[in-house]
Amino acid sequence: MKIINKILSTIVGITMLANSLLVSGSDIVLQNAYASGSYENIIAEVLQIDSYISSGLYLEAIELCNKTLSTRNISDSDKAILTADKEKAENAYNAYLASLNTVSYANIANEVNRINSYISRGLYLEAISLCNSTLSNYTLSPDDINLLNNLKNSSESRYNAYLSSSKTSKGNSSSSSQNVSYTVYRTKTGSKYHSNGCRYLSRSKIAISKSDAIAIGLTPCSVCKP
Length: 226
What we know:
The protein has about 230 residues and is α/β, with parallel strands linked by helices. Helix content is about 70%, strand content about 10%.
């Protein structure tokens, strides 16, 4: 009986040793495969990264790329794959941020309409001012920037033409009143110029020389007769 027990004990010991060797051998094989950097070792991560990018989860994709690059022992070819995916995610994220900051034409349509209205009424300085403020206050597309710059250039050209016309008329006129320039006042949207204290200046009051007022097409108020 003792002999049988001893034999059984020996068999159990050999079996356990064999299992241990098999497990250790399996671990070594897995470790070698892991160290080899074969693409199969990161395919799950790559698929997840691509899924993040296609879903617009760019920051998650970048984070997983960084994590895989820093914690996995992978081949140079796999590093190139992950680096390319990371760059793709970063570019997509930057494009997304840019789209948030860019204002579409629909958002500046009111400004453009006001600028055209100012130009049609001869209020060129107001048109130029609104062009400048719209250009500085919004992040615009190249097409909208060109549109506003064209409107600004048109306003400046027309304003300069008025100034030139005014100087010519003054040089040819014998009337002394045409040569006298003093401060008058205009409103923000009106087409007249006024004397200080005119009732039409209750809402807005902008100082301007009489010669400049005439140059941009303003006419004297019939009430205060400046």
